[in-house]
Amino acid sequence: MLILVVYDDGTHDLIESYRLDYLISTGRVIQFCRSSGWVKVGRDPVRSSSGEYHGTERRRRARNLDSRARTVNE
Predict the structure, then answer these.
(1) Per-residue pLDDT for the chain (74 aa), expressed as one digit of tens each?
(2) Which of 5, 27, 57, 60 has the most crowded Cβ, counting Cβ within 10 A?
């Protein structure tokens, strides 16, 4: 998927989505466009690739139910 970005020098570009995290982490991209609108790096929430989530786990119940269903079906 292509994402419209604004680099730190003000130029615009279309990039592959897999490049976005790297360009944000190196400070090259200052804005990018989501389906909901423009995101300003450093001001708006941006998902990181670290995989860490510090909120309440909301999938635990579904995961536990899924494992119980497999046990019953086996």
Answers:
(1) 999 999 999 999 999 999 999 999 999 999 999 999 999 998 888 866 555 555 666 665 655 555 555 555 55
(2) 5
State the Cα–Cα distance between residues 70 and 34, nearest whole angstrom: 38
Structure token pair of residue 49:
């690739």
In a 3-state reduction of DSSP, which class is residue 25? helix
Distance between CA atoms of 45 and 38, rounded to whole angstroms?
Answer: 11
Q: What is the dihedral of CA 55, 1, 9, 24, to 10 degrees?
A: 30
Given a contact cutoff of 8 angstroms between Cβ atoms, the answer to whether 26 and 51 are in contact is: no
